[in-house]
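Structure first, sequence second, as always.
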């Protein structure tokens, strides 16, 4: 595929994880193509590309498909190194921050949002998210837990406030970086959904200023494409991922092995394929689909299971 393959983000506007990627498009001033997918399954034009991975967002560049924001942001940093996501260094801790913001902080935020929306959450959305979680999506229980969720949300916010300190503009130092992007997702999500977000943020003056600066970063240069046009692009393209072995792979896995990959927390759909590339933070597998043709699907390692097929 020529180097001109567009950077396509399969997302929906309300998705907080997608907001992370959109903000990175803003930080790096990237021109990208938005493919708006449905908030609930089915997603008939996307599944042929991901092989069943059903979380949002997914990035597509030609016939290379990147799942999970860890993997998407790593690839964006690789392709667009400047301006960097690490203005003050601290790369390890910046990547690891996702394990805080995407898991405990996000679970707390999501319970707060859906507990507050409670009766307004449509039944088909609840049914979809129960399938995603493999557990009940109990909005009444979330509503009952709001006082606890507010306490915990406040604790997370206070960490951001502390990190910003007196007069520091960004969590990463004097320029915005990956830590800011990760943490902002949760504040953005609450702001989008809760009328009393102002009250929740009132005591955190530095967070409020930071939130305003984060919003001003924008989303880069966005244009729209249909789901079917994106699938046509994958079908016409050839994956560009080079074969890469990992001599230190703890399980002796190597390119050519057949495996199944899935998240370890929710949306546990196994995606089967043949390993193309491996590293401590990344696994890429080749698959063939009648509609998408040959694709290479990329996943992170932290938070994912790799099983022999
Ligand atoms: N660890 C994933 C989490 C993504 C995630 O949970 N996204 C939500 C939407 S914001 C989701 O997938 N919801 C179910 C769906 O869209 O089908 C990531 O970083 O991309």
């Amino acid at each position: 595929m020529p180097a001109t393959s567009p950077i396509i983000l399969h997302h929906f506007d309300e998705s907080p994880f997608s907001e992370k990627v959109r903000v990175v498009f803003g930080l790096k001033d990237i021109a990208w193509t938005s493919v708006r997918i449905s908030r609930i399954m089915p997603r008939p034009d996307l599944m042929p590309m991901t092989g069943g991975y059903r979380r949002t967002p997914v990035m597509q560049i030609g016939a290379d498909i990147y799942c999970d924001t860890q993997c998407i942001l790593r690839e964006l940093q690789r392709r667009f190194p400047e301006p960097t996501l690490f203005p003050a260094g601290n790369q390890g801790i910046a990547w690891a921050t996702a394990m805080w913001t995407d898991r405990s902080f996000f679970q707390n935020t999501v319970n707060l949002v859906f507990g507050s929306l409670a009766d307004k959450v449509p039944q088909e959305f609840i049914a979809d998210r129960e399938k995603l979680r493999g557990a009940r999506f109990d909005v009444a229980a979330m509503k009952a837990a709001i006082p606890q969720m507010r306490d915990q949300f406040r604790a997370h916010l206070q960490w951001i406030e502390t990190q910003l300190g007196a007069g520091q503009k960004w969590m990463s130092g004097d320029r915005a970086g990956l830590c800011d992007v990760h943490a902002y997702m949760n504040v953005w999500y609450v702001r989008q959904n809760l009328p009393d977000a102002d009250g929740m943020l009132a005591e955190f003056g530095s967070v409020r200023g930071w939130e305003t600066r984060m919003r001003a970063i924008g989303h880069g240069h966005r244009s729209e494409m249909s789901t079917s046009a994106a699938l046509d692009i994958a079908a016409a393209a050839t994956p560009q991922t080079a074969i890469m072995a990992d001599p230190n792979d703890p399980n002796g896995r190597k390119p050519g092995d057949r495996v199944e990959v899935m998240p370890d927390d929710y949306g546990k759909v196994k995606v089967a394929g043949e390993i193309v590339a491996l590293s401590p933070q990344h696994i890429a597998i080749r698959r063939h689909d009648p509609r998408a043709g040959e694709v290479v699907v990329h996943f992170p390692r932290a938070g994912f299971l790799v099983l022999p097929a």
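Margin note: The pocket of glutathione is lined by residues 15-17, 54-56, 68-70, 102, 132, 267 (CB under 6 Å).
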